[in-house]
Every structure is written in C-alpha cells, then in structure tokens.
Amino acid sequence: MPEGHSIHRLARQFTDVFGGQRVRVSSPQGRFTAGAALLDGREVVGASAHGKQLFVHFGPDGAHHLRVHLGLYGAFDFGGDEHFAGASSIGAPRRIGEREVAGCTPDDGEPAYAGPPPPVGAVRMRMVSDHGWADLRGASACEVLSTEEMRAVRAKLGPDPLAADALVPGAAGRADPEDAAPSSSAGEFARRLGATRTMIGTVLMDQARVAGVGNIYRAEALFRGGIDPWLSANRLAPEQVDALWCDLVALLRAGVRDGRIVTTDEADRPDPASAIWPEQAHYVYQRAGQRCRRCPQTVAVTEVSGRKLYWCPGCQG
DNA sequence: TCTGGATGTCAAC
DNA sequence: TTGACCTCCAGAC
C-alpha cells in the first residue's frame, strides 16, 4: 500500500483540485452507493490525512467526512483540465514501481477535458467537478463519517511523522535542551515506544503507536538507525528513539516531496549518475540475498506477523 | 489462462 | 496466528 507520504499527497491533491467546488459523487461499482448519495452535490471544503487515513471534508455544515483507507491494493486515478496539475495516479504501485504516474497537461497534446471517461474496472467511488474527476479502486475502507466518528478514528491513531508539529524544537530532548516544551507528536512517539516490550520491528507497523509507517519505511528506518528489529521498543535508548523519529520525519517528508520512497544516502548509491529508481532507492527492502550497501553481510528477510521484514544482520545486530 | 505477490487491516480462533 | 478482504499485473505454463 501507499504509505503515509502518499496519503498526505492525496490530501493535498484533493484540496487543490476539488477544494471549494461542488462535486458529483457516484459508485459505478455499486459498493458505495449509499455513501455516494450522502455526498453527491455537496461542496468539498478540503482534505486532510492522518497516517494512512484520508479524510475529505464536505460542506456546507462540515458534518460529512469521507474516510478512505487504500489498504494493500487501493489507488486513485485523476483526470481533467489544466486545473488538475500534479500526479494522475496515486496509490498501489500496480507493478509500475512505487513512483506515481505523472499527469498530462493540454500542452502534451491531450484533447480538451470533456468530462470523465466511462468507468473502467471496479470503480468504488467517482468524484467529478467541473474541472476533472477522481476514481477510487480497491480501497479497504470508503465510508462517510460524522465529525464525532471521524474524531474517534483519529483518536485511535498514533502520532504522524508528517504532522505539522513533528519537529518542534526540544520535542524529544534533542534540538534544544533549553526548550522543555513537550511535543504532541515526538513526545508521544517516545512515550508509546517506552510503554511496550513488543519488538520495535512490530511496533513501527502498529498504527496506534505511530501512524503512516509501512513495510518499506519500517525496514529502511531501522537499517538507517542501526537498530535490531527484534529489540524490545522500551529497550531503545532515548537518543535512539529521538533519532528514529527525526529520521522518519525526514524520510516521509522526502516521500511527500518526491512522490516516491528513496531512503539511500547519495554516498551509498554505487552509481549516483544513473537513475536511482528502483535499484538504488533502498538499503534492505526487497534486497534479500544481496550484499549490504554498507557492510559485507547479506541482507536477510523473515516473515513477521505475515509481513516480510528485511534487515542486515551486520549493521543491525 | 492460471497463479502468486504487493507499500494493509481486521475478525475469528 | 491465520485467513479474508480485494484489485491488478507479471510471469509461468
């Protein structure tokens, strides 16, 4: 699934292209018919993300919120006129690599926008404005919530490294020791890690402890921190927790900026001149059996809770 | 044409 | 811990 960075990009895209507009909402597949009827004809106020959860907020009373979780297979496709700048597809990779599919503009020779094409495949939800459209396929969740219900969903989630306050100075005792102001995000991360003996490799995938991290960021952040995935979360040193949080913030922010997950530092890419995607983008993820980029060891893989965990026994021992 | 796999989550056992 | 959910694509046959 797209990890947290993709959902934040989606929220931005929804706000940019649907914000302030009255939209038509339908469910060509038929599995979201009742929800679509609740939203059809309403104005999109904006969109937000918390971890891997996308919320699209509707007016005029602000009491209707569309919640979408893409799950493992979900993806959005966008299309429209010049107001629809940005990615035209965000979500599951569909075997085309993690990178999103860039949108076309009229300058590319595309015909002028004349409404959405007939739905292809299982389109769970279609949203259409005067300028373009969005199709949702394969999501694990697509529902309409009241404000209270939305707050309840968010309350169950851990801190998001992409939250606005993620790097408040002094938040985790790092940036400025003189600043004792508690951080609602970094401090919460440290508190939730310190409260469990569960292995850190499992904790990072638990959305109630940290929201937005998935299998790639889990493996890559632990490698970059030199952290043994089997170490109990509450055994991590405070400076390790602090560094891990800061690295997650940096990695996910880069993912939002670039629209893809690249975790390797330039010095660790054997051929910096070549395109780094996909061969050089990761340290350990999907590199089982290959030599570590930083030591002579071979990258290992083990199944943990049904998901593949990649790590380097040399760097993370 | 069939099968396996994928950046996820939840309920049942 | 396991299986269901659910969609698409690449590779095997």
TrEMBL record:
Pfam families: Fapy_DNA_glyco, H2TH. InterPro entries: FPG_cat, FPG_N, H2TH_FPG, Ribosomal_uS13-like_H2TH, Znf_DNA_glyclase/AP_lyase. The keyword Metal-binding applies. Residues 283-317 form the FPG-type domain. PROSITE patterns: FPG_CAT, ZF_FPG_2. One of its GO terms (molecular function) is oxidized pyrimidine nucleobase lesion DNA N-glycosylase activity. Residues 2-91 form the Formamidopyrimidine-DNA glycosylase catalytic domain. Belongs to the FPG family. This is DNA-(apurinic or apyrimidinic site) lyase. It comes from Zhihengliuella halotolerans.
